[in-house]
Amino acid sequence: MEKISNQDKSQILIDALPYIQKYSNKIVVVKYGGNAMTNKELKDAVMTDIVLLSLVGIKVVLVHGGGPEISDMLKKLNIESKFINGLRYTDEATVDVVKMVLAGKVNKELVQLLAQHKGSAVGLCGIDGEMLVAEKKTSGDGQDLGWVGEIIHVNTKPILDALDNGNIPVIATVATDKDANTYNINADTAAARIAAELGAENLILMTDIAGLLRDKDDPSTLIPAVNVSEVPYLKMQGIISGGMIPKIDCCVEAVRRGVPKTVIIDGRVPHSILIEILSNEGIGTQFT
């Protein structure tokens, strides 16, 4: 790797300045998942990005999933993993494991990792301060999903308190209801709703693909920008299909609820968060 001259380093910082100014004191919600969560080098890059943004005055909220970790633990406990239309069927035994793995293991590991990178983070889950209140969700075709929830209310106070105290909130997406039941919430859906309720400037969804592609097998067919009004047409054409449908529905939902920009970025690219926020290149597909 060639050495960057001091002149180039200063130019990089100067080029980033307008973006730092644009986002200064604004909230950015990052939904963290996929390969960037399991590959150590990518994990370190994400933590570095978040700490750097936080130190230049951007308020980062990290919302995370943990599907593979949940599946691993269920396997160890001999509980079958079952999916209905891409959502994990969550019975009594599974919801306990989801709570334990997401709010315990994964959440605290991320808080520790941010601390290792000299960031000040606080781990929260949707049950804390009744941050995420949910009701039972059924699948599109009316099938029972067990303890899978639909968010009906977000209490932003625990998140804003953490930000006001100079901390990075790290949020595990389990929720509660008025009867103290626990619900498993899809992390993309939770991130979109949290971003809207916080009045975030940007919602970034990290995925394992380059963004929305015209041809799913050809990364050069990346669509850099989509107006949410085009989404039904892109679905009809089959360009938005399969696992991308729920992700893009979340982007549309966030934009409709007032988030100025939502982006699907490739979490397999190191420092993709910095490229998205602090450069005019951008990365992935943005929805406005």
Oligomer: single chain
What about the largest sheet? 8 strands, mixed
Give the helix tally. Answer: 9
Number of strands: 14
**Ends apart, CA distance between termini:** 37 Å
Low-confidence stretches: none
Helix content: 25-40%
**What's the overall geometry?**
globular
Strands across the major sheet, in which order?
Answer: 5-8-2-1-11-13-14-12
Mean pLDDT rating = 90
Order of helices and strands: HEHEHEEHEEEHEEEHEEHHEHE
Gyration radius, to the nearest Å?
19 Å
| Secondary-structure-derived class | alpha/beta
Strand content: 15-25%
Written description of the protein model:
There is one protein chain. This protein has helices at residues 6-23, 40-55, 67-76, 92-116, 157-164, 187-198, 231-236, 244-256, 272-278; strands spanning 27-32, 59-64, 83-84, 87-88, 121-125, 132-138, 144-154, 168-172, 174-176, 182-184, 202-207, 225-226, 261-266, 285-287. With 288 residues, the chain is an alpha/beta fold. The strands form four sheets. It has an eight-stranded mixed β-sheet with strand order 5-8-2-1-11-13-14-12, sandwiched between helices. Strands 3-4 form a two-stranded antiparallel sheet. Helix 2 (40-55) links the parallel strand 1 (27-32) and strand 2. The longest helix is centred in the middle third of the chain and has 25 residues, at 92-116. The model has no long low-confidence stretch (mean pLDDT 90).
